[in-house]
Amino acid sequence: MDRLLAMELFTKIHELGTLREASEDLKISTAAATRLLASLESHLNVKLIERSTRRNALTSAGYEYYQQCKTFINELNEAEAKISASSVEPEGTINLTSSISFAKLYLAPLIPEFHQRYPKIKINIMGDNRYYDILNSNVDIAIRTREFEPDSNITIRKLANTKRILAASPSYLAKKGTPAKVEDLSNHDILIYSHANNPNELNFKKPHEKDISFKCNPLMETNDGQIVRAAALAGAGILIQPMYIIYKDIVSGRLVPILSDWDLPLLTINIAFQNRRYMPTKTRLFIDFLIEHFQKEEYERYWNMRLL
């Protein structure tokens, strides 16, 4: 039995879902893959996978073994990459995930420049408004809007802080009026991004003033920041969004800040990735490239300016 191939096959079955897909990915026949998996289980004297006609699920022993295999294979790949990095042009595929808004506004536009620098590195962007499990989803880099990761096997690097503000279109404010104090929001149509932390409660702070908590009864809720933005631009109501999504709308006057003398809690945008002894060159290059770009563009400064 080729134990390394067996370990690669086993991890691929879990990540891709079926033995057929795993065997195709490794370019071996399904029959050979079946025999290899059986040999691995026989060698370990334990059942690793509960098989079904549609999808395979790991047993508890299989899940523990998967973690060990994944670590071993990653370290092996990274050791090889480290040895060859100085003499070989960086290559491979980076699996990158972020919210749809962040991917659209700040990742996709960077692809041409990054490709020009590193033509053999490919980018797979998985835009999703949920957090992938980095350790078990074959994710290299995740962009998160939270300050910490619950798993100690995940490392984070801060990319930027951003203010969250209330804003509405000029047409909406002409029709409904502009709130002068927090309590006035009760008379307005509120548009909520449902994946925010505690989205229906706004906690306002202001120097030398008592903190105010406002409970929202929203006109609309959605799980995507671009949908909230589109509704606000159309005059549907007041949104609550981070500046990284609506900065250009504020600067252009398409959206008008509301109650800007009050502050909502900041959002921290982090880059999250697996703890590894040797980070793959492709991953390190993209992280450094992204941080360099954010510093050059001074996004954090613009996103935290005091609005009039």
List the helices and strands and how they pair.
Elements: H1 3-16, H2 19-26, H3 30-44, E1 49-50, E2 57-58, H4 60-85, E3 92-98, H5 100-107, H6 111-117, E4 121-127, E5 141-144, E6 154-162, E7 164-168, H7 170-176, E8 190-193, E9 201-204, E10 212-215, E11 220-222, H8 225-233, E12 238-242, H9 243-252, E13 256-258, E14 267-274, H10 281-297, H11 299-303
Parallel strand pairs: 3-4, 3-5, 8-11, 8-12
Antiparallel strand pairs: 1-2, 5-14, 6-14, 7-12, 7-13, 9-10
Overall number of domains: 3
What is the architecture of the largest domain at the second tier of CATH? 3-Layer(aba) Sandwich
The helix/strand order is HHHEEHEHHEEEEHEEEEHEHEEHH
Structural class computed from helices and strand pairing:
alpha/beta
Feature tags:
5-stranded mixed beta sheet; Arc Repressor Mutant, subunit A; elongated; D-Maltodextrin-Binding Protein, domain 2; alpha/beta; 308 residues; 11 helices
Describe the structure.
The protein is an alpha/beta fold. The protein has three domains: 3-84, Arc Repressor Mutant, subunit A; 89-162 and 268-303, 3-Layer(aba) Sandwich (D-Maltodextrin-Binding Protein, domain 2), CATH 3.40.190; 164-265, D-Maltodextrin-Binding Protein, domain 2. It is 41% helix and 22% strand. It has eleven helices and 14 strands. It has helices at residues 3-16, 19-26, 30-44, 60-85, 100-107, 111-117, 170-176, 225-233, 243-252, 281-297, 299-303; strands spanning 49-50, 57-58, 92-98, 121-127, 141-144, 154-162, 164-168, 190-193, 201-204, 212-215, 220-222, 238-242, 256-258, 267-274. A hairpin with a 6-residue loop joins strand 1 (49-50) and strand 2. Helix 1 packs across helix 2, helix 1 packs across helix 3 and helix 2 (19-26) packs across helix 3 (30-44).
